[in-house]
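U., I forgot to send this yesterday:
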Amino acid sequence: MTDFDLKDDAVGICKAVMLGLAPQVKIVDITHQVTPYDIAQAGRFLAGSAPYFPRNAVFVAVIDPTVGSSRKAIIVKSKVGQYFVLPDNGMITALADRDGLAAAREITNPAWMIGAKLSSTFHGRDIFSPTGAHLARGDDWTEAGPALDVAKLVRLKSTAATVGAGGLHGQVIGTDGPFGNLVLNVAAETFAQLGYRLGDRVPVTIGGAAYTLPFVKTFSDVPVGEGLLYIDSRGRLSVGIDQGSFSEVHHVPAEAALEIPAKH
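Result:
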């Protein structure tokens, strides 16, 4: 997974490095279209996809806006048994919160890198891809470098929605692929605390704009072009329009604030 896009040869080069070290490895692309430099979005994609991979899967995630700096290149092993090769920039936060982390190592061994001539700007090729291949072919990960305290890895600030006397306070954390549905930082269980049930019309304020939206199971429960609240496939509250883009129609800014009062 990267924010490289597919407009040049970067992704192909990374795969070639992996296959050169581990020819039998099966490479699955999660996405190469993470919004550039968006560590939080990358962490959401990583945590969202990991449960569908084998327990011993190796993930290489290169969203690395501080490449070449003093940030560490690391391997993290989750308590599920999966390995994550990535920069220590907080990308692992959401997965750590859900699965727990068993151990971590800094990647310092040149034998686990592409060679002595490391670039300062393409560690996806030079460090993360070869390290992922070493892990995938079964090499002992303790050889990659020294152990790290998982409690001291970089973490992103929590953005989970909160419920208090004034109702729910949350935010928009992204959009759902090309469809323009709003992804919210509101777990279904958190929204349930407000007391709404399927079929209720819910007052919602997003980025200062007020809406009243029906809470339904799926898009076709409302007429084409109408807005809705629903629980998405990841168990989060989301806002959409049947066969339309809520984000584009209503010009919702990134990270817009969200407010929902409790049901009276």
